[in-house]
Fold:
Amino acid sequence: MRARQLATDYPTVTADSSALEAARLLAEHRLPGLIVVDADRRPMAVLPGSQLLRAIIPRYVQDDPALARVYDETHADQLCAKLADELVADLLPKDRTPPPIVDANATAIEIASIMAATRSPIVAVADDPRRTDAPMIGAITVAGLLTHLLPPSRSD
Amino acid sequence: MRARQLATDYPTVTADSSALEAARLLAEHRLPGLIVVDADRRPMAVLPGSQLLRAIIPRYVQDDPALARVYDETHADQLCAKLADELVADLLPKDRTPPPIVDANATAIEIASIMAATRSPIVAVADDPRRTDAPMIGAITVAGLLTHLLPPSRSD
Structure:
């Protein structure tokens, strides 16, 4: 089985999506992060969920987490409202890199090698990723890859 | 709502669990990584799924991923069999650190602050984590925290 068959839909946002939309997508799909694509669906970056939280937390609490205790749940609602005013572009880490991208014809062991080498829990899949205009056709998570690779257990 | 109420069961392994058991747990629960606990359920480390893959891939393929293409699916089965012979202890990254641990009384904004500061998609929850013998009572993911923090959408 090749990357094309192993790839599944994975939620994406663009740099000009609102942070609120990104947060809802991440919460709904129970993901640790989202893939950010450009207008042509080329993967640009990974947006970690922890980075979304930075938009919620006032700067002085980020600097001194002990101050967080003064917030009650009512304040939390007000802080979340800030997400609607921020764009994904504002939240991307400065040291961002695109997720690893594998060729649609890559074998399971090739995909595993790339995940292991990059220590990434996810790879994007594209037809001929060396082409700079190759859109993402899906993604493969480490859990999805292991599900395919592992032999059936004796209780199956 | 405090960390105690937000915490949910999160799959854990110990250093002497087999890598095969860890891989099955990760695949079954669709997780990017597992929490490794000691015999008293104190969190010791996070085992990223990508690290589990290192056990499957021959060293020379790790060094040159281009060699991965020579493997077909039959070989992949044989490589997975290696997981049964390895322990989680053998796969932990050398630079491992425990996951962030929050107090069971931490507020949602305190938890968010700690996740943002440590860039971690997950925190372990313990009663009085300053005690060195405090067992983990559950964990909170960034998606779980956002689900709690986000205002209901208008379509809800």
Strands of chain B lie at 12-13, 33-37, 43-48, 101-103, 122-126, 136-141. Chain B has one domain: 3-149. The first helix of chain B runs from residue 3 to 6.
